[in-house]
Amino acid sequence: MTTLTIGFLLIAVLIALVLLGMQIAYALFSIAFVGIWIIRDNIGLAFRMLELTAYSGIADYLFATIPLFVLMGLLVSVSNVGRDTFAVAEELLRRMICGLGVATVAANTIFAAVTGVSIASAAVFTRVAVPEMTRHGYRPAFSAGTVAGSSVLGMLIPPSLLLIIYGVLAEVSIGGMFIAGIIPGLMLAGGFVAMLVGVTMLAPRFVLTDPDSTRARRLDRDVTPMPLGEMIRKLIPIILLVILVLGGLYSGFFTPTEAGGVGAFGALLVALSRRSLDRHKLWQVMKQTGVISVSILLLLIAASFYSRMLAIAGLPNAIAGLVSDSGFGPLGFIFFYAAIILLMGMILDSTSILLIMVPIAAPIAQGLGVDLMHFGIVTVLAVEIGLLTPPFGISVFTVHNTLNDPNVSVEQIFAATLPFIAVMMLVLILVALLPVTVTLFL
Q1: Per-residue three-class SS string for 111-130
Q2: CB-facing half-sphere around the CA of 136: CA atoms within 13 A
Q3: What span, in angstroms and rounded, lies between the C-alpha atoms of 190 and 180?
Q4: Does 425 or 208 have the greater pLDDT score?
Q5: Where are the domains of the chain?
Q6: What is the rounded CA–CA span in Å between residue 11 and residue 176?
Q7: How large a percentage of the chain has pLDDT more than 70?
């Protein structure tokens, strides 16, 4: 049996182990260790490479970005910044068609710029936006679907944990990946807004429980307008954080790690100033930061070990040769790869897909002359769609569990996210065809 055949079999076993419920980190470590042992017939070499990877895998200053951005996101979540952002967006957009839906997208877009985690956005806005939308005549399932659909913006609009993980795996600049995600993120948010307005006009009963009365209520609501001063006060914290972190990062004043540190400190000041952080909550935030960060860093060590096994097996070079011989070309490879990611998104979580696929596909894409930052944005877009597709759909399940409404089933929320998936597919195709959408600011 050739090393190439062994490599393909090991990948198949890896996917099977993950589907059977084994933690992705343990599966990666096991498959990589066994693979090196079998291919080189030397268990001592497998142990030495494991030791080397564990020692040097995350021994870089750059990896401090992960706990810092996680800490910033958690501090922002507990300080009720998301609630205030939605309140202002609701006030500004309430007279627009599907105003509360558009407000949810707008608030998610702003919230994503300081959290970087879709699950956090889904949990926050399920509590804030869904009750408000339902109270004003929107179908509960559509309200939940809007939150789930727009929550994926957190994975693309920088700073994003998925962009950080991809940058580490593909060995490209994390700051560059953040800049590359700006235009596609705004395209996605703009597409969601246009879709919500269009769906409400063309199929109002998909959106509203009673379209006629809800439209009248939208125009004639007996609501005291929010004073301008209060709107500014509610928006100041998140605007300052966005300017502080992203402004400093894009201007070159901060490195990604420094931006994470400054952002975490700024988020701490916001939480303290709003008196939303007592000793118990601070302990919970620090504990969650540690748990999430250690989990991600362990996954990255496992992925590095897995990448070394793939290199020993010669798998990336062999697949690159097959792609070249097939006549796919760079664009054909990108679409074929995106299709595989979409299929994997139905059965695996986002991080697992990146850890399994990027070490294989990034060297191939680079060999075909594809810009790795463009390739990364396509990857993250395709992975994001998996957050909404059944049967896994982690964002949908997060919204469903947080909502805890027996009248709203998971199936109804999946159906309500279909228009969002259509927009994401369109943006994915546009970004794949037009690399300038990624590289314009680079």
Answers
A1: HHHHHCCHHHHHHHHHHHHH
A2: 22
A3: 17
A4: 425
A5: 3-439
A6: 30
A7: 95
